[in-house]
Amino acid sequence: MKAIWLSLCLMFAAAMVSAHEVRPAIGDLEVAEGQVDITLTLNGEALVADVSLEGIEDTDALDASEEVDRFRALEPDALRAELEPRMAGFIDSLEVVASGVPVPLTALEIVVAEIGNTDLPRDTVLYLSGPLPDEAETISLTWPAAYGALVLRQQGVEEPYTGYLEGGQSSGDIQIGGGDEAGGWMTFATYIPVGFDHILPKGLDHILFVLGLFFLSTRFTPLLWQVTSFTLAHTVTLAMAVLGIVSVPASIVEPLIAASIVYVAVENIVSDKLHRWRPFVIFGFGLLHGLGFASVLGEFGLPDGQVVPALIGFNIGVELGQLTVIAIAFILVWYAIRVDRGEANVAPAQGLYGVLAVIFVSLGFAMNTAGFQEIMGASAMVFFWPLAALSVFCAVSATLVDHLDSYRRYVAIPASATIALVGAYWFVERVFL
Prior knowledge:
- The structure is a single chain.
- The chain is α+β, with helices and mostly antiparallel strands.
- Helix content is about 55%, strand content about 10%.
- It has a six-stranded mixed sheet with strand order 5-6-2-1-8-9. A four-stranded antiparallel sheet has the order 4-3-7-10.
């Protein structure tokens, strides 16, 4: 039984571990003195490898992931040499139009960042420029689908345009003189899905932390105290970081976030009670996670004059994502909890969780296609196999319900142990690898 249990935990952990993140490209657009200047910060390795980032959140999901990893290890000059002959094709794929007239672009400079942690994105900056047609009043950019998402920001004008373009999407006509800044309600609504998307499916570290809170106890009150403490804390530092009051390097924040995951998961194993100090500890960890959320907003940028609506919308999106994670976990384990409390029969639970485990494993195989990876950004196994493992935990809990605290022993503790293993791996990776 212990060997089976360990195998399930390791399968759960392996499915959840993810690296090689893909971030949206950032485009700064400025028109001055008859010139259109575009500065693009993007994934140069993917461009050199000639792979499509459409719908991809992790380059491990690519068939050519090893090729991308090889380019990540190249020195800046070597990667620049690989990029230069590809610039003409890249520029041809961009569609920049000013008042209906195409703008021919040329590459002025390519700047490649130094080699860092090759599991993390490295920025490559492309400086493009082209002549502005006479008497042009608007400009638009269509971003190719193969390059993923783009955050496009207009510079040098009042009330500038800021937009998030999915691959293949056009910005539409942007007034060259400014005035296309979104209003408060539009900005608020735009940033809600940005916050939600950062939790589901992109925020695996935040997901595991929230699950660590969930698996402490089956009672609602401990969860409420923990989530409230975490929400208040990350709201504070998110606002402070976005407003420039505090700034902490990601090299410090990311390992500490991983350590926070380990802490809550290990405490779940040694105790099933909400000790008085835990909400305060979680508040401290929430401050760290808020800094992590702020890095996402830093990538997207905040529209001048609409910082507060964007910040509130993003935060609401984050909360909705967290509540969705908790809701999914609760729905899945609900029947096992009822069996443990003597409120439901064993046989239906065994049948239910057995069927769910088979369904989730089958979905992991059946939907493990390139199309699924493009849409969700990772293998279907990453999404479904952890659910299958949790279903097996629940089936065992229902089967051994005559044991004291079977749900805690066979669901909460194994799940927490798996979460702790993943967090520990991330800590080591972010500090030493």
